[in-house]
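Shipment paperwork, digital attachment
Item: protein structure file
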Amino acid sequence: MVIMGLLMGSIFKLADATVKSTRAMVDHQSEEITRDAFFTLMKRHFEELPGNCRMDLLPTSESEPFLSELTFQNAPVSFNWGGIPMSAEAMRIITVKDLDGLDIVIEYFDEPILDTDETLAERGIEPIASVVLLEGLSRFEWNVLDGRNLNVERDEWPYEWEVRNRLPTFIELTAQFGENGEVIRRMFWCPTKVSPVTRMRQLQNSARSAAQQNGANTGGATINPNPRPNPEGSRGGSASDRAKRPTGPPAGKGGGR
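Attachment content:
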């Protein structure tokens, strides 16, 4: 009986260790899938930003762990929230400090939020939806590189961006998952694109120039592609001349004998 008890205890310990190992492996794979999905989302987002998008990157803390707000405007987004289709005019990715580390939250707004210097609280603006993308990070920092100043060392890339009418060329993300986790760096590229407003003006100017050129080639006259014959014109003379012609016999030469 003693041997049987020891054997059963060993089996239960082995089974428990196997379950814990399997659970840890599943959790690790789930975390990796979440990270890869986040990096893929960021890559697609930065590459698809329109030419008139405005981006602001502001640090919100002066000590570690550093917190930040990354805001995008003029980059409309459509999504379903609770089965209800919604659209957002602006969005921001914020770093929130929690007891277990840093949480990365994305917020959506149905109106512009970068038009004034007032805070969202002062303007009474709240997000229409928010989603926690990542949890339990010990480090999450953005850096930007201006394409007009490529000689800056990588370690000296600024932590903020408030330049209007254009985007940075590269955005680097440094993230560390957990206290002793691996430090991961990802570089995202923002392709230079023409603003839709500028493109529309170019098309309108091109159409206007083409119309003026066609008018100059035809002498400024408008050509009727389906001319109709003038029934009055076949009688000869203009309409005013015909109106002056007598239609009856001359005065004093009546028809009576």
